[in-house]
Amino acid sequence: MSEIPADGLEGLKANWKTDLMSGFLIFLIALPLSLGIALASGVPPLSGIIAAVVGGLVVSLTSGSYVTINGPAAGLIVVILGAVNSLGGGIEGYRYTLAAITIAGILQIIAGLTKAGKLSTFFPSSAVHGLLASIGIIIIAKQTYIMLGIKPVGKTALQQLANLPASLSLANPELALIGLLTLATVVLMPMIKPLKKFPAPLVGVVIGMCLATYFDLSHEHTYLAFQNHSYTLGPDALVTLPGNLSEGIVHPDWSKLGELAFWRAVMMIFIIASLETLLSCAAVDKLDPYNRKANLNRDLTAIGIGTAVSGWLGGLPMIAEIVRSSANVNSGAKTRWSNFFHGFFMLTFVCLASGLIHRIPQASLAAILVFTGFRLASPKEFKKTMAIGSDQMLIFVTTIAVTLGTDLLIGILSGVLVKLVLHLVRGNSPGQLLKCEMDVRLDNNAAICNVNGTVAFTNLLHLKQKLEAMPGGLDVKIDLGQTRLVDHSAMEYLEGFQHDYERSGGQVAVVGLEGHRSQSAHPLAARTK
After folding, report:
1. Is residue 1 scored above 70 in pLDDT?
2. Helix locations, 358-480, DSSP H
3. Residue 79 has what pLDDT?
4. 1, part of any domain
5. pTM for the complete prediction?
6. Burial environment of residue 522 by CB neighbours within 10 A (0 to 12, 13 to 18, 19 or more)
7. In a 3-state reduction of DSSP, which class is residue 54?
8. What's the confidence (pLDDT) of residue 247?
9. Which domain does 396 fall in, by range?
């Protein structure tokens, strides 16, 4: 393994060239995504830019991770749009939502400082992935209409999906061409080896801008197509920014502090943004070529600071974003300064070339979001979950169905409840689900960990604390022979612990599962006796 890059100013001095280039490439990817996420969230497009700038310039300085990129995320679109609508809609709903974002950021700061990041273990991964898949479906349901130049038909995602086939005949041909060509670009470019290194979202948007200029979208006009059918186009189909960017700095309105809907919005933003951040940071750790491990509590605190600042300035909440972070690693980023540079380039572009943003067609941004939604809810996610076991598929599908029928908070709680019921049906008492017993015996350079009873998402925190307190460099044997249940969350954690501990120079062997019955052939499937 290569020498680990220095952090702080030493890291900047040694790696500024690679981090500067990576930051620029991530800026090119993040610009259209930030604009599209803001528009889909029902807030001004500048809100997405503000979140990306703050995520780069502020969060990078306090973050607990090294190569993550912070900014607005598609997974929060449904949360913010729901908050804006439930708090009155329009500019007033937006300002009330900014207050909710600011408070959610403060709660994240508190959670990080009190080391509450570990509580994410209480949310089973199948339920979290089901939640993200449902968000993907909701994004596809609405953004497909915008991509084709159609006004969405129906209030809920299910209604919009049901009405979409009948609405296709109403598509605006020129806007649909812009949207479909953008979609084809972001889908196909990564598949063509010589083109993989170029930022497909930006290329798609540039194609859309060229077509928008050709179709003269900046001027209101009518044109004929398909047997002389009349269609109207104009500046409404383009992204709009305030003439003076300082006018886009909108501060929160605190008038709804005493209302239940306001605090529901706060908790939704806090929970979903925190879960996405913790999951993304853990995933990015596995991509880091230098095997560095993020301080999740510090990262949660930094995200909270960024979200509170962003909300105060009129911006969206943010997370550690996995797709942009993956692109950052692939671009050769070595330190957190690549995140800083990405925010710097975003701010510079908006200040010096904001006029170009007004030439971006909304259909192009919607197409990028349709592709993003598909990745969240792709058939691969269903297939991957089913491979782990039918029990995980039940949790996954239940979370999706309940989320689509109600909202995100009830959806994620339904997934947790289903998993809890499954464990009770398998004969585990509430007491067993709340307590996990593990005896640790140290012998020279070895540690023998005997685990008894039930190991599940509900009591995994106890096991996690003991294992992570283990001195480094030992030969660790985790004996699960006396357990009656080791659920998927526990198997997933043990695999991650083994990976991290062995990267630091130790050895881990998980034994004693030979007498257990696996829910599937998947190595991380739940085991029962």
Report:
1. no
2. 362-376, 379-388, 390-405, 408-425, 430-434, 460-468
3. 96
4. no
5. 0.91
6. middle
7. helix
8. 80
9. 379-425
